[in-house]
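Final report, closing paragraph on structural work. Over the funding period we assembled a curated collection of sequence-structure pairs, and we close with a single example.
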Amino acid sequence: MPDAEAQRAARRQVADGFPIDPDLAPSDRGEPSGAHRPSTGRAHRAHPGALAAVFLGGAAGTVGRYELGLAWPSAAGHFVTATFVINTTGAFLLGLVLTVLLERFGPTRFLRPFLATGLLGGWTTYSAMAVDAAGIGRAGHPWAAVGYVAATLVAGLSAVALGILLGRRRFPRTGALIVRVGQAVGDAAPEVLER
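Its predicted structure, as stored:
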C-alpha cells in the first residue's frame, strides 16, 4: 500500500495535467513522476518482449520515414518539407498516443514500447533536422536554417499539445486514473486512485 505522501504527490501530478508513467515505480531511477524518490538500487531492466516491440516498431517507423523522404525530395540547401512533416506528425501522434495509452488504458507491457518508443521513435528524426539545417546554412542561408529549426520546434510543440488535447477530449478518463505508486517494478496489479 503506497504511503500518503506518495498518493498526494501522484494526485498533484494528475492535477498538473501531466500524464503519469504507469509502467515504472516511483523508486525506479527512470520514473519522472511527482512521487519520484531516488533509488540506490539497481535500475529497471527492460523485458525482452518489450525490447522486441521497440525493435519491430522502430523498424516500421524508420522504413516509413525513409520511404516518405524518397517520395518527397527537397533541393539541397532548401527547406526540407518531408523532415518537417515527419517530425510534426510524429510529435502530434506521440502526444495523442501517450495520452490515450497512459490516461485511458493504463499500463501496457508491449503496446506503448511498440507505438511510442519504436514506431514513432523510428518515424521522427531530429538528427536529420539538424543535418538539414546545417545544409541550409552551408548553402548561404544561415537565417533560413535558424528559421527551419525554430519552425520545427514550434510546430512540434504545438502538435504535441494538440495531440494531448485531442486525446483527452476524444478519449476521456472513465472515473479512475491508473497509476503505479510505491510498488516494486514488475508488480502486475497497479494502484488505482480515484480522480
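The radius of gyration is 19 Å. Confidence is low (pLDDT under 50) at residues 11-16, 175-195. We thank the funder for supporting this effort.
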